């Protein structure tokens, strides 16, 4: 500090001295310049001498002053050093007054160890500074780890600690750590004498305090009320269950107010039993949390008073009562069982038997009520010849009674002299004794025998069948397969004996029938887990051409029945019929195509013939004689008839091709009928046939294809005239029936038998029925096609000698819609 201030003071005064010297020199120089007669060089030298003298004087004064200040400073520091040495000596004295070590860490983290390092000695190994911080070398492992963690927290976060550790030699060391002046300090001190005893007592007290706290917490956690009374009998402490049962707020209130859980009479009875030394709990009734409960109270005397506990046995009592009721119910239930039941205790005495037991052996009720021994009952039954006949009854009886010493139930079968068979189950009781169950299985044995016989008959029957049959169980394994099944699929007897799984069976069968989908369906039917089991039908094709119809049907017991039927012959017939049908369809298509092409080829030359014949008939190319005119008329009529036939054929071809379209328009019914009648007028006159029209004047019109309606009427009238005799009449009727228009053509001709009516609408089906009428058989077929195109229907009624009635019904309800669509 003094060294720092000296240069500043020296600089200030020295500067002033130098400034004064400079001023003096300047003044001297000025005086030299102004003084007359002085030489300039002498003046400058004089000025410098004066300045140096002043400077030396000032430096001397400053030196004397600083020397005095440093002398005072040295005296102060000497006094402080002496004081610090005294403090150091006292610190070393205090540090060495008892075995202890002090460790400090500087800013760089280097430890400084001071004190008696002998506390780290371990047997033959003396203590050393390097062993002080190696806690694991001289402390027990648990304390060493805890002390390492505490020192780490002290150095890292400045957390102070104080704990007691133990050396390997059994000495007790007090370790204390704290932060002092920004440094970490660790003090290790060996405890001896009273101080060690005090620390041990403190640890014991702390341990006892923790134990009492844990015990109190445990007592508070249990659901049974626990309390402690003083020597005066007053309540001194109670757990949480006691407070809840007595409805007290806390322990202090319960102790202060003397809240009691038990009534006075119960407490007095407990005191009396305790004073007389009567062991066991006292069962009392008390109000617990507002409800009446049954308690088992146990109080024990101690040096400071008594402690007690109350166990709630209300549920136990209820369960005991329920158990008794259940036992009574079980007894009543056992009495209703058809199985004979008898129970014997550990002394082999009869303690229970039901009604079926009495009926089975027909024993005296008084004898059974006397609780006889099991051996006595066996002797009584043997004397009455009701037990199985035995050559050595004594040995047999010993074997029966050995069931009392068995660990598990034993099952035997008794064949009684009267032909009955009993299944006897001897079940040892856990508390000692034995329970007998006698079940009369005579009927079951008989039924089982009959069942086995029926199963053998069924197996033999299925084995004789020529159809393959197999049964798969619920586990998917083959339970039964007849000889036909094994032969068809070539399954050997060794495979059938092991009951193969369905997957193994399919693997063998697929070598003969490789199709995958049918076998996947069969496997699903056998092993599939579905809510509702359904049957399966599929077809299997074998490599050799055999066709099998396979059926899988679920059985009531969960199994699956798999059957095969050889349908190779029927499949071959079906295949032949299919091929024949396809051939017929191809023939029909060829016929239709032939007719279509031929009709078109005939129509063009026929049109030319008709045209040239009309030219000849009009005599535009020259006059014709009567015979030529007659020939021309004949050609015209024949050509016109042929054109009608060709047009009919073309119409049928268009209908078959689906290209026929109706030209819908509003058709007047009377006008259409009149046009059709004009077309047939010549034939009516030539055949001397009368035509009767029954058409109302107000019948009106309907939407249809007028050309096709006229063609329908023309064909019907042509048929009627062709099959009518001279002098008969043909009647045409028309009427509206609701939403329908009905057109009828009725003749009085020969009529048709049923076999002809069945084929009347077929194409190229022509029947003269003894008349001169000839046709290609297309008229009625064309009529039916046109009627059906209009959405109507045609009906025919006829019988031999009664004429024929043909009725065509056309819908007229949606005529406006059809007309709007056509427009």
UniProtKB/TrEMBL annotation:
Cite the EC number.
2.7.13.3
> Main EC class of this protein?
transferase
- Domain named Histidine kinase: residues: 597-814
Where does the signal peptide begin and end?
1-31
Name a Pfam family for this protein: HATPase_c
- Does Hydrolase show up as a keyword for this record? no
| Reaction(s) this enzyme catalyzes, per UniProt | ATP + protein L-histidine = ADP + protein N-phospho-L-histidine
Provide the alphabetized UniProt keywords.
Kinase, Membrane, Phosphoprotein, Signal, Transferase, Transmembrane, Transmembrane helix, Two-component regulatory system
Molecular functions (GO terms): phosphorelay sensor kinase activity
TM stretches of this protein: 41-64
What PANTHER family is this protein classified in?
HISTIDINE KINASE 1 (PTHR43711:SF1), TWO-COMPONENT HISTIDINE KINASE (PTHR43711)
* UniProt protein name: histidine kinase
What organism is recorded for this protein? Methylobacterium tarhaniae
């Amino acid at each position: 500090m003094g060294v720092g201030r000296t240069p500043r003071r020296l600089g200030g005064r020295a500067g002033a001295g130098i400034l004064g010297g400079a001023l003096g020199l300047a003044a001297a120089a000025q005086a030299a310049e102004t003084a007359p007669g002085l030489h300039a060089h002498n003046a400058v030298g004089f000025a410098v001498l004066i300045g140096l003298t002043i400077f030396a004087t000032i430096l001397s004064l400053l030196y004397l002053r600083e020397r005095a200040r440093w002398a005072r400073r040295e005296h102060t520091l000497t006094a402080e050093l002496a004081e610090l040495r005294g403090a150091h000596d006292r610190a070393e004295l205090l540090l060495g007054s008892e075995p202890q070590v002090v460790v400090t860490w500087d800013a760089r983290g280097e430890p400084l160890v001071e004190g008696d390092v002998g506390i780290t000695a371990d047997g033959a190994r003396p203590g050393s500074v390097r062993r002080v911080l190696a806690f694991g070398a001289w402390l027990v492992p648990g304390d060493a780890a805890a002390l390492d963690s505490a020192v780490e927290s002290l150095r890292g976060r400045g957390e102070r600690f104080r704990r007691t550790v133990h050396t390997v030699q059994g000495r007790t060391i007090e370790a204390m750590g704290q932060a002092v002046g920004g440094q970490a300090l660790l003090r290790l001190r060996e405890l001896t004498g009273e101080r060690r005893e005090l620390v041990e007592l403190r640890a014991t007290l702390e341990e006892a305090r923790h134990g009492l706290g844990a015990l109190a917490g445990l007592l508070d956690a249990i659901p049974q009320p626990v309390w402690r009374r003083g020597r005066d009998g007053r309540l001194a402490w109670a757990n949480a269950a006691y407070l809840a049962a007595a409805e007290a707020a806390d322990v202090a209130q319960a102790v202060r107010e003397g809240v009691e859980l038990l009534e006075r009479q119960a407490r007095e009875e407990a005191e009396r039993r305790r004073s007389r030394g009567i062991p066991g709990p006292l069962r009392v009734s008390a109000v617990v949390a507002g409800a009446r409960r049954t308690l088992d109270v146990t109080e024990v005397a101690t040096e400071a008073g008594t402690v007690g506990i109350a166990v709630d046995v209300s549920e136990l009592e209820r369960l005991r009562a329920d158990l008794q009721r259940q036992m009574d119910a079980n007894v009543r239930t056992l009495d209703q069982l058809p199985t004979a039941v008898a129970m014997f205790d550990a002394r082999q005495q009869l303690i229970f038997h039901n009604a079926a037991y009495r009926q089975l052996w027909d024993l005296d009720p008084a004898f059974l009520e006397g609780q006889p021994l099991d051996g006595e009952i066996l002797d009584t039954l043997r004397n009455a010849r009701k037990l199985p006949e035995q050559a050595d009854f004594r040995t047999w009886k010993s074997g029966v009674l050995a069931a009392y010493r068995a660990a598990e139930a034993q099952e035997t079968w008794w064949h009684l002299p009267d032909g009955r068979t009993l299944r006897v189950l001897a079940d040892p009781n856990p508390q000692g004794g034995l329970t007998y169950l006698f079940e009369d299985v005579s009927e079951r044995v008989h039924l089982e025998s009959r069942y086995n016989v029926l199963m053998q008959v069924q197996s033999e029957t299925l084995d004789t069948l020529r159809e393959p049959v197999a049964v798969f169980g619920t586990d998917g394994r083959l339970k039964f397969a007849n000889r036909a099944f094994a032969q068809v699929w070539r399954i050997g007897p060794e495979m059938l004996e092991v009951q193969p799984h369905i997957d193994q069976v399919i693997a063998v069968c697929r070598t003969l029938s490789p199709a995958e989908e049918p076998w996947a369906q069969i496997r699903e039917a056998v092993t599939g887990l579905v809510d509702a089991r359904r049957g399966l039908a599929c077809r299997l094709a074998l490599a050799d051409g055999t066709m099998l119809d396979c059926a899988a049907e679920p059985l009531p017991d969960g199994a699956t029945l798999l059957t095969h039927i050889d349908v190779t012959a029927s499949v071959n017939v079906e295949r032949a019929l299919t091929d024949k049908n396809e051939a017929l369809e191809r023939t029909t298509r060829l016929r239709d195509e032939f007719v279509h092409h031929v009709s078109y080829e005939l129509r063009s030359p026929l049109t030319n013939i008709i045209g040239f014949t009309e030219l000849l008939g009009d005599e535009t190319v020259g006059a014709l004689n009567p015979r030529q005119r007659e020939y021309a008329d004949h050609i015209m009529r024949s050509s016109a008839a042929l054109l009608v036939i060709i047009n009919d054929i073309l119409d049928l071809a268009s209908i078959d091709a689906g290209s026929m379209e109706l030209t819908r328009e509003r058709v007047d019914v009377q006008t259409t009928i009149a046009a059709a009648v004009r077309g047939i007028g010549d034939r009516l006159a030539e055949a001397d046939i009368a035509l009767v029209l029954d058409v109302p004047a107000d019948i009106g019109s309907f939407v249809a294809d007028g050309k096709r309606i006229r063609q329908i009427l023309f064909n019907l009238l042509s048929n009627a005239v062709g099959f009518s005799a001279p002098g008969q009449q043909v009647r045409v009727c028309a009427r509206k029936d609701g939403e329908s228009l009905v057109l009828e053509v009725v003749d009085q001709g020969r009529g048709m038998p049923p076999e002809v009516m069945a084929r009347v609408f077929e194409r190229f089906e022509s029947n003269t029925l003894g008349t001169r009428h000839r046709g290609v058989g297309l008229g009625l077929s064309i009529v039916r096609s046109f009627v059906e195109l209009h959405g109507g229907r045609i009906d025919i009624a006829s019988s031999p000698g009664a004429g024929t009635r043909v009725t065509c019904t056309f819908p007229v309800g949606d005529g406006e819609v059809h007309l709007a669509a056509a427009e």
